[in-house]
Amino acid sequence: MSGVRTLAQAAAGERLRVRRVADAGQAPSLLRLGLGPGTLVTVRQVLPGGPVVVETAAGPLAVGRPLAEALEVEPAGA
Questions:
Q1: Structural contact between residues 42 and 14, judged by C-beta atoms closer than 8 angstroms
Q2: Which residues form the Ferrous iron transporter FeoA-like domain (predicted)?
Q3: Any idea what DSSP says for residue 25?
Q4: Domain count of the chain?
Q5: pLDDT value at position 23?
Q6: Mean per-residue pLDDT, 68-77
Q7: Mean pLDDT of 4-30
Q8: Cα dist. 9→47, 58 in Å?
Q9: Nearest C-alpha neighbor of 19 from the set 33, 7, 2, 34
Q10: CA 44, 45, 50, 55: dihedral to nearest 10 degrees?
Q11: Would you give the DSSP letter of residue 39?
């Protein structure tokens, strides 16, 4: 899958860059987790209906489904 989409739509193994927070109401929570625009993540696991586990520079992080759906990402090379 290529192009801009949400983190919830990503597949395990993808290297992605956070593009923006699509839901401004979720922005404070995502920023507290260190997931602001420009952040690079590698998707480790996508649990159906559950969290998306990513690896960040700070370490692994389980992102709940509502937050993952609010986070727009693109391929890291874009």
A1: yes
A2: 5-75
A3: G
A4: 1
A5: 80
A6: 93
A7: 90
A8: 11, 22
A9: 7
A10: -10
A11: -
Phi, psi angle pair for 46, to nearest 5°: -120, 115
Domain that holds residue 40: 5-75
Q: Write the CATH number for 39.
A: 2.30.30.90
Q: What is the DSSP letter of 50?
A: S
Residue 71 bridge partners (DSSP): 21
In this predicted structure, what is the pLDDT of residue 2? 56
Query: Pairing between strand 5-6 and 71-75?
Result: antiparallel
Q: What is the pLDDT of residues 31-52, one digit of tens each?
A: 888 888 999 999 999 999 899 9
Of the candidates 56, 59, 61, 22, the one whose C-alpha atom is nearest the C-alpha of residue 41 is 56
Contacts (Cβ under 8 Å, ≥6 apart) of 39: 17, 18, 56
Structure confidence at residue 78 (pLDDT): 64
